[in-house]
Amino acid sequence: YVTVERVIRKLARAAGLKKRVTPHVLRHSFATISLAKGMDVREIQELLGHASLRTTQVYTHIVRRRLLEDYKRVWG
């Protein structure tokens, strides 16, 4: 895990990212982006290896743009 984290940090620096990037941050990003692209939260749960859907929900975050798009689609 430590080696993976070092590689990720090195790649993040090379990409010019200012925010600290860790495997944990990547899991959050993966879950959030997958949900925003329309993947079912139960599929994300399976891919992340979570026994509980509640754990997966901690990893997913509301993407404001998607929220507004969905609101407009439903409510005009």
Distance between the termini: 47 Å
By secondary-structure content and strand pairing, the structural class works out as: mainly alpha
DSSP summary: helix tally = 5
The H-and-E topology, N to C, reads as HHHHH
Measured by DSSP, the beta-strand proportion falls in: under 5%
Global geometry: flat
Radius of gyration: 15 Å
Low-confidence runs? none
Mean pLDDT: 94
Tally of separate domains: 1
Number of strands: 0
Instruction: Characterize the biggest β-sheet.
Output: none
Provide tags for this entry:
76 residues, mainly alpha, 71% helix, 5 helices
Structural summary, described in words:
The protein is an all-alpha fold and 76 residues long. The protein has 5 helices and no strands. The model has no long low-confidence stretch (mean pLDDT 94).
Compact overview of the structure:
The chain is mainly alpha-helical. It contains five helices and no strands.
SSE order and pairing:
Elements: H1 2-14, H2 23-36, H3 41-48, H4 53-59, H5 64-75
Helix pairs in contact: 3-4
